[in-house]
Amino acid sequence: MCSYNSINGVPSCANKELLTNILRDEWGFRGYVVSDAGAVEHIIHSHQYLNNSIDTVVACINAGVNLAVASFKYDYTPVYFSIVEAVNQGRLTIEKIREMMKPMWYTRMRLGEFDPPESNPYKALDLSVVESPEHQSLAVEAALKSFVLLKNKEFLPLRKLIQGKVSIIGPMADNKIQIFGDYGPNTDSKFIKTPLDTLKVLGTDFSYAAGCVDSTPCLKYDNQSIADAVKDSKMVIACLGLGPILEGELKDRATISLPDNQVQLVKDAIENSPPDTPLVLILFNAGPVDLRWAENYLRVVAIIEAFYPAQAAGEALYKMITLAEPMANPAGRLPFTWPTSESDMPAITNYTMIGRTYRYLTHQPLYPFGYGLSYSSFSYNNLKVYPLMTEIIGSVDVTNNGPFAGDEVVQTYISWPVYKEPTPRLQLVSFDRVSIDTGKTLTVNFSIVAVSLFVWSDDSGWNVPSGYYDIYVGGQQPNVTKSVGSNVLKSKFYFFPKS
């Protein structure tokens, strides 16, 4: 798919260097290229790279776009409607159009669209298969494995019933739509378990209040309902977040803060509940949010990043919070750097990469890339590294020192020797999620392919610098302030690329 961006000044859907020279000629791609919705029309109306449909359809077809998804959202006439006129003017040939059509038909043939219906196994599928217990279990597993535990003051897991009221509050506590995130399906609600559905049994009694009348924007905030819900509570679970109302396609955020009234909701819950009542914060969002306030609150004893766990949200959260099974021991790790505030983030117009992503970061983030806590603790020993001609192999011993069996994500990072071209300060080159029983040690093998060491030079293309590389192996990045508690081992290896 070619999208809305330009590459070296040329819109991606008109970029022959990208779609033909590289994608097809260099990489051997034999499928078809489809545009993102309206991307071809944006060449005229947004990029102003060309000024009419004839020139644009010729440029896109010659670049290699087989299929254009038009967008009627902006009342633009679809550019590919001009193919006939371009042929009539001699700008395109019938042979060229046939050439562009073939990959689409070949793909449909490979998919069996023209085969007899009885030979297509998917024709026999019905809801008993789609809604099978195996598929529902998979939804729970996917949600469980994605959760990231950001904070835990030795409060979780809950191993016994709370003797008293558990208060479940916030706009995401019983929200069957927003927990799916952007581009979520319209599904049968009978399979959706919200946090309220499952977490209300954590105590002998429960209360619930959304607080935010208008869902996640929380412009209409009912503070009295929160005060009433948390009165005499033994535990508070606050479910906050963004949802597709606030983030998604065409919905860039101007700030990484949660809506003000969502933060106020937590403050009101703390103020109106007994002084020794713990609060667990569960977040439903895709992009990072400013959590300095929650990190600093002593009453916020745990923070769970749930992302958008969809239909199994409630069941998976219950299993994680209670450690209902070994797989529920949290082992998700952050797939991005979580900045402290938006002032730490480079402007979107800055393409130098300075300060962007963990690879070029120049300051300590709130949570580093690869961060995530566990109910167990792990230690690393006996790191061995063996550079070969085309790869680097190694091993490390990982011990589960904690009270629970669980998964650990073994992360391997490298930093480059001094080189004539700029290199990242650090780069993840290998990771492996492994299960280790309590008190046991597992030897984990890893391999780093030479391509992971490549550095780009405008003069000579991709090269592997010769010299001594630093290698770090552990359950997190090296040299971070926000630590998961385990050690990170460091070694060196000399690599001389095979000519």
From TrEMBL:
Superkingdom, according to UniProt?
Eukaryota
Q: Biological process GO annotation list?
A: arabinan catabolic process; xylan catabolic process
Q: Which GO terms describe its molecular function?
A: alpha-L-arabinofuranosidase activity; xylan 1,4-beta-xylosidase activity
Q: Which SUPFAM superfamilies does UniProt cross-reference here?
A: (Trans)glycosidases, Beta-D-glucan exohydrolase, C-terminal domain
Among InterPro entries, the record links this protein to: BXL (IPR044993), Fn3-like (IPR026891), GH (IPR017853), Glyco_hydro_3_C (IPR002772), Glyco_hydro_3_C_sf (IPR036881), Glyco_hydro_3_N (IPR001764), Glyco_hydro_3_N_sf (IPR036962), Ig-like_fold (IPR013783)
Q: Where is the Fibronectin type III-like domain?
A: 408-477
Q: Keywords of this protein's UniProt record, alphabetized? A: Glycosidase, Hydrolase, Signal
Q: Does the record bear Signal in its keywords?
A: yes
Q: What is this protein called?
A: Fibronectin type III-like domain-containing protein
Give the originating organism. Patella caerulea
